Amino acid sequence: MVESLTIRRPDDWHLHFRDGETMRAVVPQTARQFARAIVMPNLAPPVTTTALAAAYRDRIVAAVPEGVAFTPLMTAYLTDESDAGDLAAGHADGVLTAAKLYPAGATTNSAHGVTDVANIMGVLERMAEIGMPLCVHGEVTTPDIDIFDREAVFIDRILQPLVDRLPTLRVIFEHITTMQAVSFVESAGPNVAATITPQHLHINRNDILVGGIRPHMYCLPVAKREQHRLALRGAVASGSSKYFLGTDSAPHHRHAKESDCGCAGIFNAPFALESYVQVFEDEDALDRFEAFASLNGPAFYGLAPNEERITLEKAPVEVPQEVDGGEARIVPFHAGETLSWRLAS
Ligand code: DOR
Ligand code: ZN
């Protein structure tokens, strides 16, 4: 039996830090595990320009604890009015690693998102030209589409046509949740990759709805049927270089989740690696964990992997019922559970 695993320090290729006091509480929890993270721009108001991203980056860096090496990788929030020149300059200057497509209305703070991909075609063409990656929240938002079908319909209506039209655009299909997404990624060229969250590897929709509504299991895209969870586990266990770690860690305070209109988002930052590695052990794929966590992401983004190593050891760790969230407490993913791997300090 494997008792410990030493790998290059991983990165988180998709998460939410928020701002202000919440940000200052959650940044150290990610920096404990990861060397870099792609930071989502869905603040209120959103991070739409290079200047806003540079200022946000400085606020995040100021929240990294003394003596900890952590680099935030910034994204710009695309709107119908995005300026291709500003984004290209921000990318060239190293401020912007990528740009993020939120279909308007798809999720938290996405009201300013893109109403029709046709409106940003000029920006996407420029991004394809300069090799700037596009992060995609892949759900349609039209009310006639059932929430459990929104990802699959997005592939047919938006993503496949986009990839066909701009075959050199580097696309990260983020937090995928369906077998249709796995098939799409498999069949697409090497310029298309996907991130997968710990929660979508662990839970299916029963975990949200059976025996009572569990608001802390609710995120978007919402967890789907078991067959989809199994397809995602198969994808990460396959060892394909097209999949990499992206937690979608999304802090919302307890009262905002336990509400008559609870926010979407699962806060998994405190025990993200412990959560993922369990999946790889269950799938008999521990030998593939380093590529998923530490190699495939940097390779896709054209960055070097981290030199530092971390060790995960087989030892129980108890996940607390609540963790520090700044202004209020946050219930983390796996709250109250005992996980069987622990990050050695
Ligand atoms: O569950 C989610 N929470 N999904 C998203 O796409 C956004 C995120 C958030 O910002 O809370
Ligand atoms: Zn997200």
From TrEMBL:
Fill in the subunit field for this protein.
Homodimer.
What GO molecular function terms would the record report? dihydroorotase activity; zinc ion binding
- Which residues of this protein are catalytic? D248
Q: Which residues form the Amidohydrolase-related domain?
A: 12-310
Q: What is this protein called?
A: Dihydroorotase
Organism whose genome encodes this protein:
Qipengyuania flava
Source species taxonomy? Bacteria, Pseudomonadati, Pseudomonadota, Alphaproteobacteria, Sphingomonadales
> Which residues are reported to carry the modification N6-carboxylysine?
K100
Gene Ontology biological process terms in this record: 'de novo' pyrimidine nucleobase biosynthetic process; 'de novo' UMP biosynthetic process
* Matching Pfam families: Amidohydro_1 (PF01979)
Residues annotated as binding Zn(2+) 2 are K100, H137, H175
Read off the NCBIfam families from this record: pyrC_dimer
**Gene3D superfamilies given for it?**
Metal-dependent hydrolases (3.20.20.140)
> In which residues is Zn(2+) 1 bound?
H14, H16, K100, D248
SUPFAM superfamilies in the record, alphabetically?
Answer: Metallo-dependent hydrolases
Give the UniProt family note: Belongs to the metallo-dependent hydrolases superfamily. DHOase family. Class II DHOase subfamily.
* UniProt cofactor(s): Zn(2+)
Q: Binding residues for substrate, per the UniProt record? A: H16, F17, R18, N42, H137, L220, H252, A264
